[in-house]
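During the no-cost extension, the postdoctoral fellow (Dr. R.K.) reprocessed legacy sequence entries with the updated structure-token encoder. One reprocessed record is reproduced below for audit purposes.
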Amino acid sequence: MALALRGLEPKTTDPYLAGWRLRVVPSLGHLPLPMVSNGAVDRSVYGWIADGCSRSTVKNNLAVLVRVMEQARRDGLIQSNPARVKGWQSEYHRAEDELDDPRSLALPDWAALTALADALVARSHGTFAGRGEVVVFAACTAARIGEVSGVRVRDIDPVNWIWTVRRQTTPSPGGLADKRTKGKVARRVPLIEEVRPLVAQRLLAVGPDPDARLFTGPRGGRITTAVLRDATRWDEVVARLGYEHLRRHDLRHTGLTWMADAGVPLHVLRRIAGHGSLATTQRYLHPDLRSIAEAGRSLSAHLSVVAGPPKPPGAVRRVL
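Re-encoded structure tokens follow.
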């Protein structure tokens, strides 16, 4: 690694090493070096995008991977550098287009969600039920798959049924901070009645250890979006069910859409989603509600123009 990163300044090596440890190794570290192909790198990149990584984060991940693989090529371990992939930027254009109408990405109802979860479990090796539980939990809490796989016992309030989604804001034990958090603090998400038995069952199964994870794979590992896709044959299952364009991140769109349709106030929905801008949350409102809200803003703008600027004291004369 020292040879691969030689010549870089510390301000560059820090995010490179963070990306290497947090995303590159979990995505590709299980493969022997000669088996890291262009296709494997492509799938990893699309997995990072589906996880919600920013464009700069994906770029840093690829940059450090390119350097490491280039060093392996110079050492004669591989013939070509498989990390030099192109075209991944176009995935962001598609994601931005979808965010103009995130409601279109949501599952229609509870029956569709449970049918999807059951189909994924049935298609996965060993029919491990935990993979379906992750899907249901993510949709009902409007959370990302990465957040669900990281939930611990201490994050669950079984009295008020609230999940505290914690974000890493301090350097990790390795001295590197996760840039994706951007300093955001924890947010709180309600656990609806439909998922409370599932959460209670998981709490009972993992025991009282506050750092124990609730949702893990059959071997105790984290269920990332890439693992969920590969283990459940996600693409095949969603295509068979008629949701060809459904991605793991769209489970979050499902939860936020359902909450908006249930009448959750906009400012509360924004806090649950963790959105930085209210405009982002407004996209989940029903079109009829958006038009009503727009009518209110138009009226406010009209009244502010009619009223005009306030007149200074003494400018009004008394008429006798």
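Strands lie at 156-157, 162-165, 187-190. Residues 287-307 form the longest helix (21 residues). The remaining legacy entries will be reprocessed before the final report is submitted.
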